[in-house]
């Protein structure tokens, strides 16, 4: 039953110098492909649902399936809300048993971002839930095809990052260093010197959003300078679409839907395996590590005694306490 807090996955990645992939899923086929890839590569995994994808994926509907497949997995998995932009999304994710929350206040002024993230941290940490935030602003559109160029005025300032981490207590920080969501306009140019300064200023695992479209050299250099979680969506989407296109092209556009769905899943699976290998995350579950005590998904480090149901119950209690405290503070009952 390897559902674990994301913070534990990132702490081990930071210690050993690799990055854990965070794959944004939009349906059951992608969910199955990601877990299968992680198991085949013996890799930790972060399953993410982005709030921007809520129109296409029902979090409450798919969460039981996530818990079911994760409970049967033999690698450690965290379930993560990606780019949550309001308190309602955070509470929904916690009620669904997510073990990690990203609250994105990067479009807000610094002080407002600090205040909002601090409230999320207070609630989530009471239940052992990891919190990620963003400082600076990563441009582009999730899965966008038009191409976006990064603007230096939105890059993360290392001294602001130091203060932000100190005041909020976040566990991981998404940074802007020339990365963008979706497709890049022109050749990506990451500011690695800025990344080094951000690593030294914060001391916590840093996160690279807009991870699609970068070179293997860029990934590996970023990991060496403090990136320990890399978000991927566009490359997965493109891989699935290409696989379907190749199938339909050969069949002149006429094919069984089951085969179309299978082709998409296989394309996504292959890309997920490729990213796991590049990020240095493969084979991390072949030898016992401290993660085994939390995971217990296989016999390498022993089976886990605490069930996922108990973890979800703990999270639910924390959410209810937070809501009660909020109502008491406003005088509303």
Structure description:
With 333 residues, the chain is α/β, with parallel strands linked by helices. The protein has one domain: Aldolase class I (TIM Barrel, Alpha-Beta Barrel). Helix content is 48%, strand content 14%. It contains twelve helices and ten strands. The protein has helices at residues 6-16, 28-41, 59-71, 87-95, 110-125, 158-168, 192-202, 216-224, 234-250, 257-278, 291-295, 308-330, and strands spanning 20-24, 45-50, 77-84, 100-103, 130-135, 139-140, 172-175, 180-181, 206-208, 227-232. It has an eight-stranded parallel beta barrel, surrounded by ten helices. The protein has a two-stranded parallel ribbon with strand order 6-8. Helix 2 (28-41) crosses helix 10 and helix 9 (234-250) runs antiparallel to helix 10 (257-278). It is globular. The two termini are 38 Å apart.
**CATH architecture term:** Alpha-Beta Barrel
Overall pLDDT: 87
- Write down the Rg: 19 Å
Q: Write down the secondary-structure element order.
A: HEHEHEHEHEEHEEHEHEHHHH
SSE blueprint:
Blueprint (H helix, E strand, L loop, with lengths): L5 H11 L3 E5 L3 H14 L3 E6 L8 H13 L5 E8 L2 H9 L4 E4 L6 H16 L4 E6 L3 E2 L17 H11 L3 E4 L4 E2 L10 H11 L3 E3 L7 H9 L2 E6 L1 H17 L6 H22 L12 H5 L12 H23 L3
Parallel strand pairs: 1-2, 1-10, 2-3, 3-4, 4-5, 5-7, 6-8, 7-9, 9-10
Helix pairs in contact: 2-3, 2-10, 6-7, 9-10
Key features?
8-stranded parallel barrel, 10 strands, 333 residues, TIM Barrel, two-stranded parallel sheet, single chain, alpha/beta
Give a short overview.
This protein is α/β, with parallel strands linked by helices and 333 residues long. It has helices at residues 6-16, 28-41, 59-71, 87-95, 110-125, 158-168, 192-202, 216-224, 234-250, 257-278, 291-295, 308-330; strands spanning 20-24, 45-50, 77-84, 100-103, 130-135, 139-140, 172-175, 180-181, 206-208, 227-232. It has a single domain (6-321), classed as Aldolase class I (TIM Barrel, Alpha-Beta Barrel).
